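Milestone 3.1: sequence recovery, worked example.
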């Protein structure tokens, strides 16, 4: 019977596997992800605790919201006791936190619906709004910035004026103007409401056009302004002048050399704008009556529905952490010095 002889390479596999595991642990991307996730843990705690305290300190409570302003005071007191609202704030928060650590965000004290189900039902409109505004803001903003840096003159001044207007115009005012012009007068798009994609893809798209535009104007202005400034700085550098002198094609100079070197500050602004878009959904969803997390947060805060407010705060924080993680990964991918750290 022939024996089986282990090869020298197989004998070294344990040590090789250990080395491979160490290489994975010290990989730049793994370090970035681990650092961001480690920062997310205290951030989630701080956000949840501060949200709980702020909502608890506002006048009124859930019992008064459920029974109405004219309800007898003894009925309000009994309901507050039944809901545990007469406990100290730290006791209420600790009870919520113990369940949240096991993935249970509780139930709405107003509707009795589980918080997870209520938030998941409202999540698609918010995600569609954020993703649409992010794609529109990034694409048009970078395009305008690059074009104005290359052409200069009147186009550059126009981008500066647009950036100033984009920073100054409130999103809710712009949303109202878009509704008056494109929904009421021209009747191109619906003024309010949301159509699920599964019900009608075309209706879903039409219901998002105006809110996405209203939300993205500020992001377009900020990204275009930063892209133009970064491109102008890179285009005036020595290595770009050498590229022109060596006869490289304009496309190669603009996209392979200039835009790549100008991308680092642009990525930072894009990440900040993505977080800003998340906060802007609260206003835009109220203006266009979209059934998203922003409108749910407003109504739950008014009704002092603490479990729902806490759940939305956690969801928003997780989304912000993911945006920051993607920004860090893009930054480290483009910057070799960051990858080497």
């Amino acid at each position: 019977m022939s024996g089986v002889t282990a090869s020298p390479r197989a004998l070294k596999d344990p040590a090789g596997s250990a080395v491979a595991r160490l290489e994975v642990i010290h990989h730049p991307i793994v370090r970035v992800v681990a650092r961001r996730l480690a920062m997310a843990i205290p951030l989630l705690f701080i956000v949840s605790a501060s949200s709980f305290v702020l909502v608890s300190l506002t006048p009124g409570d859930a019992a008064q919201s459920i029974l109405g302003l004219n309800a007898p005071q003894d009925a309000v007191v009994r309901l507050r006791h039944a809901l545990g609202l007469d406990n100290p704030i730290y006791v209420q928060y600790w009870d919520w936190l113990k369940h949240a650590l096991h993935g249970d965000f509780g139930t709405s004290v107003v509707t009795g619906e589980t918080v997870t189900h209520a938030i998941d039902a409202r999540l698609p409109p918010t995600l569609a709004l954020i993703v649409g505004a992010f794609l529109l803001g990034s694409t048009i903003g970078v395009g305008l910035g690059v074009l104005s840096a290359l052409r200069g003159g009147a186009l550059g001044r126009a981008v500066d004026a647009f950036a100033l207007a984009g920073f100054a115009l409130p999103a809710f005012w712009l949303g109202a103007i878009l509704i008056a012009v494109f929904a009421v007068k021209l009747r191109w798009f619906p003024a309010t409401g949301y159509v699920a994609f599964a019900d009608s893809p075309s209706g879903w798209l039409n219901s998002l056009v105006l809110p996405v535009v209203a939300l993205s104007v500020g992001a377009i202005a900020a990204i275009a302004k930063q892209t133009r400034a970064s491109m102008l700085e890179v285009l005036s550098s020595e290595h770009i002048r050498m590229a022109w002198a060596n006869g490289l094609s304009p496309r190669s100079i603009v996209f392979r050399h200039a835009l790549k070197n100008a991308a680092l500050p642009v990525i930072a602004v894009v990440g900040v704008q993505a977080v800003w878009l998340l906060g802007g959904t609260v206003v835009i969803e109220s203006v266009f009556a979209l059934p998203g997390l922003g409108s749910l947060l407003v109504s739950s805060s008014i009704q002092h529905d603490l479990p729902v407010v806490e759940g939305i705060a956690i969801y928003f924080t997780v989304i912000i952490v993911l945006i920051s993680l993607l920004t860090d990964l893009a930054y480290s991918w483009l910057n070799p010095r960051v990858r080497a750290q």
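The radius of gyration is 26 Å. Confidence is low (pLDDT under 50) at residues 6-12, 18-25.
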